[in-house]
From TrEMBL:
<dbReference type="Pfam" id="PF02900">
    <property type="entry name" value="LigB"/>
</dbReference>
<keyword id="KW-0560">Oxidoreductase</keyword>
<dbReference type="InterPro" id="IPR014436">
    <property type="entry name" value="Extradiol_dOase_DODA"/>
</dbReference>
<keyword id="KW-0479">Metal-binding</keyword>
<dbReference type="GO" id="GO:0008270">
    <property type="term" value="F:zinc ion binding"/>
</dbReference>
<dbReference type="InterPro" id="IPR004183">
    <property type="entry name" value="Xdiol_dOase_suB"/>
</dbReference>
<dbReference type="GO" id="GO:0016702">
    <property type="term" value="F:oxidoreductase activity, acting on single donors with incorporation of molecular oxygen, incorporation of two atoms of oxygen"/>
</dbReference>
<feature type="domain" description="Extradiol ring-cleavage dioxygenase class III enzyme subunit B">
    <location>
        <begin position="16"/>
        <end position="269"/>
    </location>
</feature>
<protein>
    <recommendedName>
        <fullName>Extradiol ring-cleavage dioxygenase class III enzyme subunit B domain-containing protein</fullName>
    </recommendedName>
</protein>
<dbReference type="GO" id="GO:0008198">
    <property type="term" value="F:ferrous iron binding"/>
</dbReference>
<comment type="similarity">
    <text>Belongs to the DODA-type extradiol aromatic ring-opening dioxygenase family.</text>
</comment>
<keyword id="KW-0862">Zinc</keyword>
Length: 276
């Protein structure tokens, strides 16, 4: 498989927006059986696509909101099984990845320099928006992970600003990973069926077009995302889209592109990268 980046550690890493699936979907039987297989295989191939091994991951998940931006500072974070009603074995998944308290402090310093308040989190584990996709991508669990929360209120401008504050990490071998879903209307997803929601198709097309624009135009469109075709049908609540804003903010002037697309549970799901 060709790489999406031919970089040395001294060059800036890209920023990524990944779909993390539905609960622990990659680790259980599903009907139909191949529903999540393409996404799972793409996640497994992600390190090869990157073409360079990150020294650490900073991950923003749709499943953590805090009053202020919160930063996981634990040296050995546990896993937080924040899903319900799934098979018992999915609550036994392990991914003993190390944290990086020094990197966490550096993240806090970058946020402070940008005028963004943050708090340390020393007890919450890594939620399934982190370990479910990244256990596939980095199964060795050897690359340190620092998780950063979304901020309650879910203002696009604040999450673009968070990304801009984190951007210098890209030149330090740190991969910024935004974990969400490009479509997240659970009521529609649970209906099942093979027909793809036209609102999902329309919104996904708009996302692909928007992130490819020059940075100023891109960010202006993202701020107004709720006016896009199919937007509120695709995201009745915006927490699964907000990580994309962080990835875009960290991109600087680097353009974005779609690097994966699949149809699952009647929706279009895409992954995007900036700076490839």
């Amino acid at each position: 498989m060709s790489s999406i980046l031919n970089a040395t550690p001294e060059q800036a890493l890209p920023t990524l927006f990944l779909p993390h699936g539905a609960g622990p979907c990659f680790y259980m039987d599903w009907q139909p059986a191949d529903e999540w297989l393409a996404m799972a295989e793409w996640l497994r191939q992600l390190p090869a696509q990157l073409g360079v091994k990150p020294r650490a991951l900073v991950v923003i998940s749709a499943h953590w909101q805090a009053q202020r931006f919160a930063i996981n500072v634990q040296p050995c974070p546990e896993l937080y099984y924040d899903y319900y009603g799934f098979p018992e074995h999915t609550y036994q998944l392990q991914w003993p990845v190390p944290g990086d308290p020094q990197l966490a402090r550096q993240v806090a310093q970058y946020l402070a320099a940008a005028g963004l308040e943050s708090v340390e989190e020393s007890s919450r584990g890594l939620d399934h928006g982190v370990f479910v996709p990244l256990k596939l991508a980095f199964p060795e669990a050897e690359i340190p992970v620092v998780q950063v929360s979304l901020k309650q209120g879910l203002a696009v401008e604040e999450h673009l600003a968070l990304g801009r504050a984190l951007a210098p990490l890209r030149e330090q071998g740190v991969l910024i990973v935004a974990s969400g879903m490009s479509y997240h209307n659970m009521a529609r997803l649970m209906r099942g069926g093979t027909q793809v929601d036209p609102d999902s198709q329309a919104f996904d097309q708009w996302l692909g077009e928007s992130i490819a624009l020059p940075a100023q135009q891109r960010d202006a469109r993202l701020v107004q995302w709720s006016q896009a075709p199919g937007a509120r049908a695709a995201h009745p609540e915006e927490e699964h889209l907000l990580p994309l804003m962080v990835a875009a903010g960290a991109a600087g002037d680097d353009p974005g592109t779609r690097i994966f697309q699949d149809q699952v549970m009647g929706s279009v799901q895409s992954a995007f990268a900036f700076g490839i």
